[in-house]
Amino acid sequence: MGEGFGPWKMGTDEAIFPFITSANIACGFHAGDPHIMRKSVASAAAHGVAIGAHPALPDLVGFGRRAMAVTPDEVRDYLCYQIGALREFCRAAGLDLQHVKPHGALYHMADQDEAIAQAIGETVQSTGKQIILITMAGSRYDAYCRARGCRVAAEGFADRAYNRNGSLAPRTQRGALITDPERAAAQAVKIAAEGRVVSFDGAGVNLAVQTICCHGDTPGAPQIVRAVREALEKAGVQVRPLSSWLP
Q1: Backbone angles phi, psi at 92, to 5 degrees
Q2: Cα separation values, 98 from 24, 45, 70, 102, 150, Å
Q3: CA dist 66 to 61, 125, 140, 155, Å?
Q4: What pLDDT score does 47 carry?
Q5: Full-prediction pTM beyond 0.85?
Q6: Residue 104: which of 52, 34, 30, 178 has the closest Cα?
Q7: pLDDT value at position 64?
Q8: For the chain, which residues make up each domain, given as ranges?
Q9: Top-level class of domain 1-153
Q10: Which residues does 95 contact at the CB level (< 8 Å), separation at least 6?
Q11: What pLDDT does 11 receive?
């Protein structure tokens, strides 16, 4: 959420907020600016949505989806800077920051490089023991952060296709982005109710998650998010902010 910048707008956030319980708000490095961050925090508050920081690599042109050669210390500084910015907007609005979810390339780099994963885990822990760190379910990144004692919520995706090893299919691969609301909703229900997802090539993949993500920039995102929320509730899944139940 909040992934515009200056006069450039991405997504239809106001149509999405009514159907979510937690929001990942861009913090300025891949998208977002101070005015958009403030407005996003206000919108989240108006809809009773818990707020999370969505920090990224410093890559506005590439929308944070290009890997960069960065050191663990640089990652710590990037995260501290961005989390601090959004947290101050939360404080000014009388709200708490619920979670942190790294964006794009940084999120995936954490699964490939233990030093990056540790830097993320250490930084989030240093911001407060109660802050939840969102990781990819079944990933090495998730394992690294749990081993450090972070408060972790493993994430599954409603609008992305999976490989049989549990990783996400690359966005460059045809069909990697799920834009059909019914298909996204069915995948979300399977993940939440069965702890499984069907991969690109038809294999069943075990996937234990505590949160399900929908991307605000996916074409038709409002319809997807609404379909996912309604399908989960119809399946008997209680949808709540992470901080209300996660240990």
Answers
A1: -65, -25
A2: 10, 12, 26, 14, 14
A3: 9, 26, 20, 21
A4: 98
A5: yes
A6: 30
A7: 97
A8: 1-153, 158-238
A9: alpha beta
A10: 41, 44, 45, 51
A11: 87
Q: How far is CA 153 from the centre of its chain?
A: 10
Kindly give, in sequence order, each residue whose CB lies less than 8 Å from that of residue 22, ignoring residues fewer than 6 positions away: 49, 50, 51, 52, 98, 99, 211, 241, 242
Task: Report d(CA 74, CA 68) in Å as an integer.
Answer: 11
How far out from the chain centre does Cα 223 lie? Answer: 18
Strand pairing category for 211-213 and 152-157: parallel
3-state SS assignment for residue 194: helix
> What does the pLDDT look like over 31-60, one tens digit per residue?
999 999 999 999 999 999 999 999 999 999
Of 197, 12, 15, residue with least CA distance to 2: 12
User: Cα separation of 216 and 36, whole Å?
Assistant: 15
In sign, the C-alpha dihedral spanning 131, 137, 141, 144 is positive
* Spatial distance between the Cα atoms of 17 and 45, rounded to a whole number of angstroms: 10
Burial label for 85, CB within 10 Å (0-12, 13-18, 19+), is middle
Q: Which residues of the chain have pLDDT under 70?
A: none
Round to whole Å and give the CA distance between 64 and 70: 13
Average pLDDT, the chain: 96
| Alpha-carbon distance values, 214 to 63, 110, 157, 226 (Å) | 17, 20, 6, 10
